[in-house]
Amino acid sequence: MRYLAKAAGTGAILLMATACAGQNVPISQPAAGGTSEVPTGSVSTSPSESVLPAPPSANPPGKPRLTVPEGSTPVPPAKVDTAALPANYPHEVWTANGGTILNIRAQEGGCGHALGEATEQAGDHVVVNLSETKAQTGRMCTMDIRFPVISVALASPLDQRTVVLKTTPPK
Hints:
Blueprint: H1 2-21, E1 73-74, E2 80-81, E3 93-96, E4 101-105, E5 108-109, E6 114-121, E7 125-132, E8 145-146, E9 149-153, E10 162-167
């Protein structure tokens, strides 16, 4: 019986705490006969002001994302050499920033993160090694596969060069 009373009391306290969490309660109450002041620094809820931060405008190299940055141009499939990639690996490549950034659909899973590095930049082709970071030992990881878009910076615009995609062992 006493456990039932404790459980009911705890439930009542939690109910009151959650009910009061969304209310705007003044920090100090005026004394009897006093006047209350409006706190300064309140948040405006005007419809013209945005509460959410603006999405990033560019995809900086080394930062994976799930969507292709706006303004990216797809590289024609004939200009992407995927012969060295495993079966079912993504083959999507886009250029941005005047062709000096390659946005590549990569593959990662669990605790790993996709990486990309331009290892060779010749006159007729660019070789990009795609890899994944190793999971930390002793850490539980999910068994999912993700396909983020990673960015790789080039020394000069891609223009008519072919993009050669390769994979390397996890780092």
